[in-house]
Amino acid sequence: MNDKIFENLSPSAGINPMMHSLPGSDVRLACAALKDFGFSGAVTNVSGENGFTKNAENVEKLAAAAKILHESGLEYWIYDETGYPSGQAGGITLENHPELEAKGFYMRKFEAFLQPKEFTYEIDGDSTKIVHAAKYKINLSDTCEAYLRFDTAESLQFSKKRVKIDLQPGEAAYIFVTRPAYEGAHTVHNISSRKRYIDILDKRAVKRFLEVAYAPIAAADENVYKNARAVFTDEPSVMASYAREHEVFNYALAPYTGSLFKEFRARRGYSLLPYLPLIFEETSGVYPKIRTDFYETVGELAAENYTGQINAYLKKRGTKIAGHYLAEEHVWEHAANYGSYERVLEKTGYPGMDILQCTPEDFYFNAPKFLQMIAEKKGTDGFMVEYCPFFNAETFYKNPFENTVGALSILYMYGARKINSYFEPNLCEYSGGNAAALARFRGGLNRGQSRYLNDYVRRMYALLSGRKTRKITCVYYALEDAQSKFAPRCCGKYARDGVLTALDRSLGNLAKTLLLNGEEYVFIDADELQTAAEKAGKASAKNAEMRRIVVPVCDFLREETIAALKKLSESGAEILFLKEDEESGAAACACADGASKIGGSTKISIGRTIGEKCEARKLPFGEEVTAKTLLKKIRKEEKKRALLAPQPNVLKQSYEGGICVYYNNNKAEAQAKVMKNAAVYEPATGRIYAAAAGEIVKIPAYRAAILEEAGETR
User: Fold this and answer.
1) Is residue 544's pLDDT more than 60?
2) Helix residue ranges, H only, 233-308
3) Is 157 in contact with 164 (CB distance < 8 Å)?
4) pLDDT in tens, 444-455
């Protein structure tokens, strides 16, 4: 037991209010109030008024505010925009550079069955150019179906706007056309602006963003970046998906940039062009491989050209890129918005997320757990959270302080180590100055509540920072399943697609079944799975940490994934394939070649190489379980590890060194029996005490208690 751990808490471990209007106000007075309220610092930015960074006075005011924050002993983060999504710079980035705008490509298809077809196709609307056109023979042996013969692909000659189509019976033509990714996208559906957006896949576009939004700050005062904790970027994305399900458009867009096809060939080792139809349709069983390779390429380009390029720029100036990305909650959105969400976040200096649903009883538990996985892979002490109580606001504001304590408890339990918050303090209460000078800072937190929250998270940080989670039950982050199922469409009804969302429903059910019943898991991705398989050896397998791997409900796994799981199984690891609980039914769909894909079964579809059929086979290893069966199995096998007896709605997360966080997600106090002698740390009060096996630990509503097994010490 470390009875001194709550002494000398780190000042930088507290919360930062999002204070976009800090420059131009009485900064010194605001800094004094922030310190008095217990905050670490603030997130602030160049004013968006009168030209943003084009106005030298705006930049100078930020530099002056940053200097005062630093001199006051407060940390600061620089928000990189006038609003969001980041990349627009208030519209400056695209001024005189329309070629740098975000793009997508759509498909037009024409078939000839009984009669030939001959005509000229011309692009319409604000489409920009044709990027590929080809025709194929159709397999018409089945009168119910029409499958493309990809071995007959024949490129067609085309100009920028026209292509001549000449089809004989039994042929099909496909035309692929680019256009701006704008209408219906996140860039027009947000609460900031409807400005046109940059192509984050294009290195030139992001370089231009750096030149107009970042470079003026560095030129004004090199210490602004040098002394900054990080730079906060906000919800960049590829903009190829539609944001509202009630809107319908003329084009189903896939992400595009001018170098896409060249980059695909260089990275994947084959040309995408003959297989472009499979980005949109499933006329060959090889489509899962094409789509996963496509979205991995998109993710790599976004990671390197946006996140990676900005982070390299900032690293040279003494800081890093952080902030948060878009739609963290669901894996299908990870593919839709970035190609590969994890690739993008792996290139950050410090990963981050936002949380909009800030009511503990209605929480997306897996969202921070995805970040937990990425932060541990990167080796950071955790991740940042932008705390935004915007969704379910009516419920949240019935008791905003208690809801915030609960939400922060969940976030810290699962790896958050820095909060930047839109639930802000009422600095007008500061007694050391003129309240009128702080009038713009009228938030919902009073001084006592602010100090409580900051003390609470600082104590959580003191106990958890630097610790890695124990990988007892590992859930595979099956991104390839979402990538293989994501097809462009003309509306935003992705979440209604039962096949596309089967993985996310499975993960949601897993959280409800395991986490809310006092058991735990962590996510692992394909890279971690491969590494574990490479290290696996029969002699040491029983002592390996990653000994239980759960594959959620999915229809497609890469061949490499199957091989890694098989090797781990042979080395003694327990491989469990989730299936739908009995009352919910199973998701199912069919490949173009007729192979059955059963969601949640060990019968998994595998598209291995170009030219091979989609193969659905029952795997010769592993066990099928429902989430309820898995709960019983884990509870029985992990009983000996527990420090507290499981309680309904009391969540836990185990860390290395005998530490375990227990969080009470009930609205009433929870009481749990101590299973082993342990030290108990109460971050809410600062109390530390020893508890013997058999005693009762009381955890207040929406609070965490952290237990340390006796004999272990920090």
Assistant:
1) no
2) 260-268, 277-280, 287-302
3) yes
4) 999 999 999 999
